[in-house]
Amino acid sequence: MFETSAGLGQLITVLIMAAALGMDAFSLGIGIGMKGIRLLHVLKISVLIGFFHILMPLLGIFTGQYVSSLLGQVTTYAAGGLLILLGAHMVFNSFKSGDTRMIDHRTLLGMILFSLSVSVDSFSVGVSLGMFQSNLILTVLAFGICGGAMSVMGLLLGRRVSRNLGDLGEALGGVILLGFGLAFIF
């Protein structure tokens, strides 16, 4: 499938980024799971998160490709800077006191809003990836599958574990994105 080491490197990068973005769904899933959640809601929320983890980076990639055509050589620095800002934002949010993201996850609107809120970061990463040559299908499928799977794990784990693990998961995802941002720039 991947004939060159550059192709394998791209695959590993996409998978690590997908996992980093899935950390937000995982961490918030733990919080919702701790409040009590039915298995049917776990399935519905995870499918919606997977869908938005495909849609948002897809929109971001197309936006990034357009921005790349406008910026030219500055693209690498802009993409790296965007990942650094996104990673720093995720780390900062993980240490905020109090849960300001209280959405009733049992309603359809609540499920959609929750799924969209944990998938917005994927748009920004998609913009960064759109500035480079990345495999579109591989990228959006990896983001969608990873986001959906990590939300299932978070929701189910939330029924058994404390909320602190969720905050650390989001911080870890932010640190990973920060690292990739710095790697793009330097």
From TrEMBL:
GO MF term set: manganese ion transmembrane transporter activity
Subcellular localization, as worded in the UniProt entry: Cell membrane
Membrane topology according to the record: Multi-pass membrane protein
Residue intervals passing through the bilayer: 12-33, 45-68, 74-95, 107-130, 136-156, 168-185
Keywords of this entry: Cell membrane, Ion transport, Manganese, Membrane, Transmembrane, Transmembrane helix, Transport
Superkingdom, natural source: Bacteria
GO cellular component terms, semicolon-separated: plasma membrane
Main location: membrane
InterPro entries per record: Mntp/YtaF, Put_MntP
Pfam families (alphabetical): Mntp
Stated role: Probably functions as a manganese efflux pump.
Protein family according to the UniProt entry: Belongs to the MntP (TC 9.B.29) family.
HAMAP family: MntP_pump
Protein name, as recorded: Putative manganese efflux pump MntP
Organism encoding this protein: Paenibacillus dendrobii
Organismal lineage: Bacteria, Bacillati, Bacillota, Bacilli, Bacillales
Name of the gene encoding the protein in the UniProt record: mntP
